[in-house]
Amino acid sequence: ACDKFLYCAEGVPNEHSCPPGLYFDEDSSNCDWKESVNRKCDQITKGFAVNSEYPASTSSTHI
Domain Chitin-binding type-2 spans what residues (predicted)? Predict the structure, then answer.
């Protein structure tokens, strides 16, 4: 669906939705009007890619 997108936080993908009437624009990473989005919404895309340039952050506790 063109109104949904994944936002990764610390390497964990979370699904989000655009407000009603808007579509996710992959070029700008924002929700926008359908006419402004350069995306074919009738095609189904499965899966997603993770940019390995930004590895998941790690946290540690020092005592």
Answer: 1-43
Evaluate whether 2 touches 40 at the Cβ level (below 8 Å).
no
Pull the structure tokens for residue 2. 């063109």
* Kind and range of the H or E run holding 24: strand 22-25
Residue 13 sits in which domain range?
Answer: 4-34
Q: Is residue 62 part of a domain?
A: no
pLDDT in tens, the chain (63 residues): 688 888 888 888 899 999 999 999 988 989 999 888 887 776 555 555 555 555 555 444 444
Of the candidates 9, 42, 49, which has an alpha carbon nearest to the alpha carbon of residue 23? Answer: 42
For residue 54, the cross-strand partners are none
On whether residue 63 sits in a domain, the answer given is no
